[in-house]
Design brief:
Radius of gyration: 22 Å
Oligomer: single chain
Number of domains: 2
Strand order of the largest sheet: 2-1-3-7-9
Structural class: alpha/beta
Bound molecules: iron/sulfur cluster
CATH superfamily of the largest domain: NADH:ubiquinone oxidoreductase-like, 20kDa subunit
Order of helices and strands: HHEHHEHEEEEHEHEHEHHHHHHHH
Strand content: 5-15%
Distance between the termini: 66 Å
CATH topology of the largest domain: Rossmann fold
Helix content: 25-40%
Number of helices: 16
Number of strands: 9
CATH architecture of the largest domain: 3-Layer(aba) Sandwich
Length: 361
């Protein structure tokens, strides 16, 4: 089996990609060429083992569908991807041979990427006649770092949703938290994986929040960086899907947006080659990166609890305080906020929209 699965990219594209990686890492002082130098200097490509457990393969698809040229090409040209079940050509005993050879010969050197959650009951998920949890323990034991990619691997996600007959658990509950980096998302954004791998290669383990997520990705609340935030502040809300207000950047909180409880850089990094993201297309955020997703965020199109405003600013600023359970801690105060904004004469955007509507009529 060929161990070089991906093509080379041009120097120009390489620098462009390194610029994107530097931006994703928040390395304002580090130029793209410096990132490129560090990556190019790694003469020996770090080996990667990518395991697929209980999932829909959406994170693989997200990663492999990223636009080209992009960071995916660069990273894969600087890594030696030894084992990746969803696309490797080899089958059966041949793949097992590659896996075990990598574990033994690259002990302490390889990065394990785990996609999917782990059933803890025998027979609910197996590779080569071995339960997922045994395979995970073996691979993780000698890995340099373990990346739990996607909400299923990081927190259990949809496979662990009620009633969870296979008693599915996240990766960190099987092998401990010590060398696990959670990259949640349903699916995970390719740039999250890429920038995390670059961080591990360049600087070691990134700083994590209390949910095991890199702070440089998940350290900010979506609501604080949302392009519809001005509408929220001015009390301009979409009341139901299909309204023209969806396309006029009105806030989606009343139709279920969970942005105020969700922490990631989606508004800045965006999706599909940085072209758009959930809120921009009028879908609202469903909180897919949070530990309590999906159970605590359903129904997806019901609005967050409409509670009092006091204390809200302090809660939303700290990702570590949010995520286990929605409820009383979610204090948005939509009605109060709208009234307050009106009283302060802050409804300039609303007035502009009303004026525009009159003109159009
Ligand atoms: S509630 Fe959602 S749509 Fe409204 S400002 Fe916050 S993140 Fe944006
Ligand atoms: S905007 Fe929300 S639902 Fe969409 S990818 Fe980001 S965290 Fe997930």
């Amino acid at each position: 089996m060929s161990r070089e699965l991906f093509r080379e990219v041009s120097r120009r594209d390489f620098l462009k990609i390194c610029g994107g990686v530097a931006a994703a890492l928040g390395l304002s002082e580090m130029s793209a060429s410096e990132v490129a130098e560090v990556l190019a200097a790694s003469a020996k490509k770090p080996p990667v083992v990518w395991l697929e457990f209980g999932s829909c393969s959406g994170c693989s698809t997200s990663f492999l569908n990223a636009d080209s040229p992009n960071a995916v090409d660069v990273i894969l040209n600087h890594l030696s991807v030894r084992y990746i079940e969803v696309i490797m050509a080899a089958q059966g005993a041949q793949t097992e041979e590659v896996l075990h050879e990598t574990i033994e010969k690259e002990a302490g050197n390889y990065i394990a990427v785990i996609e999917g959650a782990v059933p803890t009951l025998d027979g609910y998920g197996m590779i080569a006649d071995r339960n997922f949890y045994d395979v995970l323990k073996e691979v993780a034991a000698k890995a340099k770092a373990v990346i739990a990619l996607g909400s299923c691997a990081a927190y259990g996600g949809i496979p662990a949703a009620k009633p969870n007959p296979g008693q599915v658990k996240p990766v960190s509950e099987i092998i401990g938290k010590e060398k696990v980096i959670n990259i949640p998302g349903c699916a995970a954004n390719p740039s999250w994986l890429i920038s995390t791998v670059v961080h591990v290669l360049m600087f070691g383990m990134p700083e994590l929040d209390s949910f095991g997520r890199p702070k440089f990705i998940y350290g900010q609340c979506i609501h604080d960086n949302c392009e519809r935030r001005a509408s929220f502040d001015e009390g301009m809300y979409v009341e139901k899907y299909g309204d023209t207000e969806v396309g006029r950047d009105y806030c989606l909180v009343k139709v279920g947006c969970k942005g105020p409880n969700t922490h990631s850089n989606c508004p800045q990094i965006r999706w599909n080659g940085s072209k758009s993201w959930c809120v921009a297309v009028g879908a609202g955020c469903i909180g897919c990166v949070e530990p309590s997703f999906p159970d605590a965020f359903m129904p997806f199109h019901d609005r967050l609890p409409d509670l009092a405003l006091p204390g809200w600013a302090g809660i939303r600023a700290d990702a570590d305080l949010i995520g286990t359970v929605l409820g009383a801690a979610t204090a948005i105060g939509i009605g109060v906020h709208a009234v307050g904004a009106a009283a302060k004469g802050k409804l300039g955007k609303r007035a502009a929209h009303e004026e525009q509507a009159k003109t159009e009529a």
